[in-house]
Specification:
- This protein is mainly α.
- It folds into two domains: 100 residues, no CATH class; 275 residues, no CATH class.
- Helix content is 75%, strand content 0%.
- The chain contains 14 helices and no strands.
- The two termini are 39 Å apart.
Length: 397
Amino acid sequence: VDPVLLASAQDLQAELDSLRLRLGLLYAYQKDLEAAQQQWQQIVDPERPLELESGQKGVAQVLQGLWGTPRRILPEAEVQIRNHLDGWFEAVALQQLYRLQQRSDSLNALNQEQEKLALAALFRLTVVGGIPVLGALLGLILLLGWLGWSFWRQRPLVGPPWEVPWPGIGAQAVLTGWFLGFILLNALVPRLYTVLLGLGAQRLSPWHQAVTLFLTYNAGALLGAALLYRLLRLYPGWQKALQVRLWGPWPLWGLCGYWVALPLVVLAAALSQLLLPQAGGGNPILPLLLDSHGWGARLLFLAVVSVCAPVFEEVLFRGFWLPTLSRYLPMGAAILLSAFTFALAHLNLSDLLPLTMLGVVLGVVYSHSRNLLAPILLHSLWNTGSLVTLLVLGDAS
């Protein structure tokens, strides 16, 4: 048997058994004991090949005994439950165990602990839900005020086009080369990392997954930077499009743009769910982030999401691609097409409309601010807010 395929099969079986454990507890909580026993029996099935047995077999037998007929308490039942279950599922199993053992003090302490956790989770959810709502209301007020002021003063909604020295065919070559190279690096870098460290076919820990993500993304960013440099060095004056100035109102543009983006992107996400309900997708970083519990891995995820991605993507899509398009298209159409390209590059159909809307706001901000630091700040705030929200919701679950 191929060891790589066997390791993949073992990982898949472990995930499936973990799901069956929890599904069985949901059935038991709903008093459907027959369905619960069926889920746990699939884990302890004696006909399963030995190489596919997982560590959940012991706890599955414990749960079978706790909800079986007659009830049975196996040795080290509490240890098995605490080692293999967590959160609500652990609490439900321990409650059943303490009832059968008639340990009223332990049961009361567990119930009080669950009440505290529920209140803490409710507080987190209130904060996570309340802050974006207030931000969206502020953003809506800012958007309506800015639109009203622009029409009253007869000011254009977008800034003037750029005068770029490089040709459009060169920009297309840079984007195509970066995109194809990034796909190749996405397959090559993680493989090289596992080979060089001798990790073999084993499942990578959250730390190693964070490192591979960091290396992969930055390898793609370096490739993109090299392609940009190779093109731009041929055309003096390219700095007029890729403008970065430390002084000026760029923090105000970035912050206000973030607030304005909140209601617009939420609206686009709702429209996406209506038009593409089965699109699937999702950010591949999210499950990795939820699996990580150490701050080392989380800081690497934060570095990629909040620093590396905003800097590189804004240089590429707003600093380079948007000015190129403005040479050939009206400014509004250039912003829309650059935003759509930005969304397409994420290879996620379910986020196509929300990311396009975010890209439009980023493009409008850059067209007025003429400073790349403004969309970089907006982009960083957006990604960081999403990351923090996910962490809070993960800790609350």
